[in-house]
Amino acid sequence: MRAVKAVVPFKTRGAKTRLAPFLSPEERMAFSKAMLRDVLRSLQGIDVTILATEDFDPGCDGARVQLNHHDLNTAINAYIRRERDPTFIVMSDIPLIREWHVREMFSDGITLVPGRGGGTNAIFMRDPSHFKVDFYEVSFLKHVAIAKERGLPLKILDSFYMSTDIDKPEDLAEVLVHCPGDSCAYLRSIGVRLSYGKSRISVERD
Amino acid sequence: MRAVKAVVPFKTRGAKTRLAPFLSPEERMAFSKAMLRDVLRSLQGIDVTILATEDFDPGCDGARVQLNHHDLNTAINAYIRRERDPTFIVMSDIPLIREWHVREMFSDGITLVPGRGGGTNAIFMRDPSHFKVDFYEVSFLKHVAIAKERGLPLKILDSFYMSTDIDKPEDLAEVLVHCPGDSCAYLRSIGVRLSYGKSRISVERD
Q1: Min Cα separation A34/chain B (Å)
Q2: What pLDDT, on a 0 to 100 scale, did the predictor assign at position B151?
Q3: Is the pTM of this model over 0.90?
Q4: Using CA atoms, how far apart are residues B138 and A202, in angstroms rounded to an integer?
Q5: Subunit contact A194:B138, Cβ cutoff 8 A
Q6: Separation CA A195–CA A197 (nearest Å)
Q7: Which residues of B touch A164 (CB under 8 A)?
């Protein structure tokens, strides 16, 4: 197989607004970068392009930033249209991802990794130029349909860790329970800890 | 290996109260039973005991109801204390479980299947009498600690489908997106369908 590449979209402004009541804008940015580092660590040894709206230092060898001012779908589709090498698209807010997930994503066609709420948290494409992404709404079902329409073999990777994207304060509990690395360490450093309600757990701050 | 058994706790009254604004008490009961049938289907060929607070017809061959009026932990611990055969404990509200998950749970010691929010949605025990369950709060971390204290080999099964327990109206979207069987058919039969908001999807009724 040819060299494998990865694309990680990353928002450098206004990211993770749903964490707003809980984290300040600076904390949200620092936490987003910590999650990105956890994701990049799982992609070690792979040539990674971070699609970002402005330049920044990802603080990680082997990952380069490519500027793109379009929306997520336009940016990714422009990238994969020209790409001939097998490519992963991995969201930057799934810090529970581990290195072994990347191996499990390899397939002969398309691998989709479902996120909670009908989302798609990662895609592997053996031939990226044969596929088209369509994120937002129930993107998982849209991606299943696109793979079928185009006759591409489809694998679904069933992973709790990869399904867990961190958007809302209650999602921070998943980071603290399964404690993946930089993002868990960051939350602890600013005093975020698990709290126990009557039913599900949540988080609170010192 | 000896014959394998499974235990599925099931609440026959007051189940799924967090679905209350969305489903009537009768609908919650019918939906709970549909989820139970989806779970029992994944356990085909295994001797299943349903631990319930009152007798009812699970509508499924090979599953028998055993009455137990204690709380979940007391009921399960009383059961496994006497059990010498390898045993699965599987929650009844994880309808996305598939038959192949059951094979993946086999291990030489304890297998834990994390649920969202720090929960544990299933446990496999090679020697049930060597283990003790402790559900509620962050049961996943408690079960990891119990396995370690007792020197039992520990496997964690990373599954999105099994992590998805259905508690709140928004969880119903997972059932409709991944549409496992009876529980999906039941929701459709009473007019529940996906709805698209600004960010995450949810559900609405006709």
Answers
A1: 21
A2: 97
A3: yes
A4: 10
A5: yes
A6: 7
A7: 116
Provide, as residue numbers in chain B, all residues whose Cβ is less than 8 Å from the Cβ of A170.
Answer: 117
DSSP, collapsed to helix, strand or coil, labels residue A94 as coil
Do B85 and B3 touch, CB atoms closer than 8 A?
A: yes
**Residue A106, CB half-sphere, CA atoms under 13 Å: how many?**
13
Q: Which of residues 13-52 of A touch B (CB under 8 A)?
A: 18
Q: What own/partner pairs with CB < 8 Å and gap ≥ 24 does A55-58 have?
A: A56/A12, A58/A10, A58/A33
Facing B163 at nearest CB: one of A137, A138, A160: A160
Angle between helices A182-189 and A25-42 (to 10 degrees): 160
Tens-place pLDDT, residues A174-187: 999 998 799 999 99
Please give the DSSP secondary-structure letter assigned to residue A97: -
In residues, how long is chain A? 206
**Torsion-angle region of A96 (φ positive above 0: left; ψ -120 to 50: alpha; else: beta):** alpha
